[in-house]
Every structure is written in structure tokens, then in C-alpha cells.
Amino acid sequence: MVENLQARIAELKREKHAVILAHYYTNPEVQAVADFLGDSLALSVQAKSVDAEVILFAGVHFMAETAKVLCPDKKVLIPCPEAGCSLAESCDAKAFAAFKAQYPDHKVVSYVNTTVGVKALTDICCTSSNALQVVESIPADQPIIFAPDRNLGGYIKGKTGRTNMVLWDGACAVHEQFSLEGLQALKAAHPQAKVVVHPECKREVVAEGDYVGSTAGILAYCGQSDAEEFIVVTEAGILAEMEKHFPEKKFIPAPTFDAACRCNECKDMKKVTLENIISTLETLSPEIVMDEETRKAAERSILNMIAIK
Ligand code: 13P
Ligand code: SF4
Description:
Strand content: 15-25%
CATH architecture of the largest domain: 3-Layer(aba) Sandwich
Distance between the termini: 41 Å
Number of helices: 15
Low-confidence stretches: none
Structural class: alpha/beta
Strand order of the largest sheet: 2-1-3-4
Radius of gyration: 19 Å
Bound molecules: 1,3-dihydroxyacetonephosphate, iron/sulfur cluster
Order of helices and strands: HEHEHEHEHHEHEHEHEHEHEHEHEHH
Helix content: 40-55%
Oligomer: single chain
CATH topology of the largest domain: Rossmann fold
């Protein structure tokens, strides 16, 4: 059944001259039909250079929006427009404009997990892969607004020692679910394991990490490390990719506050299915549309980021 659906998608991709970009947090069977699989930074860069008339973005809404900002002449499809992101939704563009007005001499650095409206108010975007380089590219005496993730912002503030950084008070509802006590107990039970953590997690959880980085950074670290066991403190979708690349290693998902809730899964990323990919390719809709003025303003902030990488 899954194979039939995947074969139909392969056929539609040829017929419609489409490519599929997918984030590591989507379901494994969706990851398997992707032409490009990556973290937020890799997917933004890929979207810009993709050679196809149609891009189907298997991910949440802001990711497809980012692809459209970078590829205005391409048709960018989103199989599930309701797939939002708690972090992007924690920063409303109108409220952010009012916040920004309080700090007129600050440069705005925004995590790519934002709506196009917030990106249009941003000087330079970043992802969890390059947030440190982006902030370090700004002169030390230049004050910064960092939005929307208070955890990533706090982590970068600590790393750079910059006191002139104000943070928007947003967060990812998934990455904030990891339990410090649960993690410490797991570490005690697996003393040889390396702890790999995404910087969207709470500060005290991040402090437990042997490695802190983006989804792609975590994957690379697990490949390079001599360790045989890893405790993975990020969204569980990445486990499929880890097990595929490093079958000889053991990956243990970190516990969340409520062990029964599967809160280490981004429910929005899982809304992308083989079925909704098929219907989207068949009908070439839903499509991302946006007004050109906002798109252009947002594009500048993303291109400023890509130039730094
Ligand atoms: P990265 O893809 O930068 O690791 O970000 C994780 C995330 O939460 C994506 O929404
Ligand atoms: Fe947004 Fe968090 Fe899901 Fe990433 S894991 S898409 S930040 S809600």
C-alpha cells in the first residue's frame, strides 16, 4: 500500500515537473519520497537553487512560505496548509512591529521559524545551524532584537556574551516538553551515551548536552563521534534518519514531561501524508500565495542570511 502510494508520487513528480523538499521531522514514508531532505537551513538554500517548475514542501507552513519568498516564479505547494508551527505562531507580525518600534536602534535577527510578515520586519534571518555566525556577523556594539525563540536566543546570548540582545518571548511547544529530571535519570542509566540537544529546548536541558545544534548538526555529530549510544533531545522524526545512516549505533529518545503523550513529535509535521501529497500534486493546489511587497521585504532578510552561510 505505502509502496503503491510512493510509486504514484514518483509518477506525478515526473508528470508535473515537481520536486519534493522535506524536513527531517516529517513521517519516514514522507521522507522517503523527498528529492531533498534537510534541516531548515539546507532546505532554504535548496529551495533557492531547485531546478523545477513546481516545489512541493513537505513541512510546516512557514517553510513553504520561505520557499515561495525565494522562488516567486515557481509554484510552491503545501500538502497541508493547516500544518502550523507553535514557534512561528508565538510571534504575530503586528505585535512584533510594535515591539520593534520600542527599540529603533536595534537590528532584527529572526529565526527562520517565522511568518513572512515577521521576516519582512527582519534585517537578517537565521536558523539553528547558523544563528551563532549570524549574530557574530553583527558588530559587537550594535544592539539586536532576537526573535521569536527565547531558548535559542538565550543560548546565543550566553555563547556570545552579548548583553545588548533583547529577546522576543516565544518558544516551540515541542522542544519545551523535554524533562530535565527524566533526562538526568536516562543519563545515569546510560553513562556512556552522548547527549545531543536542539537549542530550542529549555536552557537547563540544553546545559546537559555534549553537543548542541540543529537537526543536521546533530546528525553530523552522531556520525563523527566514537560513541555508540546517543540520547536524542529533539523531535523524534530525526531518529529514522539516524538509524538509517548509523545502524550500528543506538539512539535513545529523551523523555518528555508526560511519557504517554508522544510530545516529542511535532504533530504539525506529521500532518503531511502520502495521501495529501498525491492530491496536492494531482490538483497543483493548495499553493502558497503572498503579496509582492511583503515577499520582497522578507526575501532580503533570507538572502542576507544565505550570504553569511
Ligand atoms: P532545524 O531544522 O534548524 O534544526 O530546526 C528545527 C525545527 O524545529 C524546524 O522547525
Ligand atoms: Fe515549529 Fe517546533 Fe514543530 Fe519545529 S518542532 S515546526 S519549531 S512546532
